[in-house]
Amino acid sequence: MSATRELERPAAAAPAAGVKRQTPLWQTVGALLRKELLVELRTLESVPGMSLFALSTFVVFHFALDRASVEGEEAAGILWVTLLFAALLGVNRLFVADADQGGFDGFLLAPVERSALFLAKALTLLAYLLVLELVAVPAFALLLLGPAPWPALPGLIATLALADVGVAVIGTLVGALAVHTRARDLLGPLLALPLLVPIVIGASRATAPLLVEAHGSAPASKWLLTLGLYDLVFGLIAYAVFDFLLED
Amino acid sequence: MTAALELEGLTRRYGEREALSDVWLSLAAGQTLVVFGPNGAGKTTLLRVLATLLRPHAGRVRVLDCELPAQAWAVRGRVGVLAHEPLLYRELSARENLRFHARLHGVRAARVEELLDAVAMRERAREPLRTLSRGMVQRVAIARCVLHDPELLLLDEPYANLDPAAVELVQPLIGARAGGHPCTRVVCSHDPSGGLAQADVVLGLQAGRPVLARAASEVAPEEIAGLYR
Predict the structure, then answer these.
(1) Helix, strand or coil, per DSSP, at residue B175
(2) Is the domain B3-87+151-226 a CATH 3.40.50.300 member?
(3) Given its phi and psi angles, is residue A133 left (phi above 0), alpha (psi -120 to 50 degrees) or beta?
(4) Which of A45, A93, A109, A248 would you mutate first to test chain B, the one with the most B CBs within 10 A?
(5) What pTM value is reported for the model?
(6) ipTM of the complex
(7) pLDDT tens, A122-176?
(8) If we measure between CA atoms, which residue out of A200, A177, A187, A189 comes closest to residue A247?
(9) Domain ranges of chain B
(10) Nearest chain A residue (CA) to B10
(11) Which positions in chain B touch A248 (Cβ < 8 Å)?
């Protein structure tokens, strides 16, 4: 590799003669996000697969456990492990169209901030997770959960939101790392799982008290805080290193 | 005349293999460089280095007065790249693809419609690219390549898959006077006579090494044909 690194674009400097003005970050993120959602709407490659996987897993658990219902830690564990593996399906597909159809090159040739790709992909994955949970959580409540889900809903939504941000950030980082390798379908989950385990632990512990008959009114705040901190740390790491993943 | 491209000992490796080795070249603004060479000679690698998609491993590379890779950010948005891959999404239509690239480059939407007309794709503009013929996709790729009115065109076999009528159609967009003014171009070609006719400077590559680098007026078609033997 060359010892010379690419210098950063001067942030405030007026463009020199001929140099194109950089497209604003949010305009770039908007363009990428719109493209991602259009491609997914046309292909339906990610979200339906993730949702079907989650539904099938709940059915399998229903018969494998041979019980009418679950609650507490057991319920939280089943819910979060299922959501995690369903999310990995989305992570694996996140960059495939870009890698296979030259989308990376098209993006890299434009006068844009590279972190826009990270933000757009993380938002895309977040949207996928939201749709997944709109399908999977009611299905879980119907197929497996013993206690009524309604009182637990506000706490569950807060936990889901924090966990989703972490999964989206880590999934985007790992997806970008794995997509250029030959064994991307294997490498993606192998890299992602160790990084996502703390999210599953935090989310399960936060959710477990909500999924019992005599549940508390709120999830354990200690675990919500842990999830928030984990999101923040990985958000900063991903934002800092993502540019390098796109470099030759 | 100012130099649009200056290469001094450009070398690029893939692992142990040198894909480009010690390439020296200067091209003035408004001129056309045509690169000849058999498959695997390093033509595409050269285009990717000039487009800032690959880093040079040794030597000095200046593109549009910017040193690469240090000032690659200042080159982006000023080059138009037409590669083997169209750099378009198969599931999106021609219009959706061009609008996406227009947003990335901060180009107004009306330019997309102008270009769809220019490449005669308006009638099929709503169909997914996967349903179009290769020639049609190539026309859309040409529209994408010139969407942002680039100062430097990097064209890898630009007329591949195009019928004679389509070649005539895209000539005003990627020809020597693209956009109505002399345009700086680097064109990879396998057509000795056709390539030579549009060249100001010729570069012949064999296994990554420059074996011919001269003004086109000093090169005979037989010399180019010899590169492929």
Answers:
(1) coil
(2) yes
(3) alpha
(4) A109
(5) 0.90
(6) 0.91
(7) 999 999 999 999 999 999 999 988 888 888 888 999 999 999 999 999 999 999 9
(8) A177
(9) 3-87+151-226
(10) A2
(11) 53-55
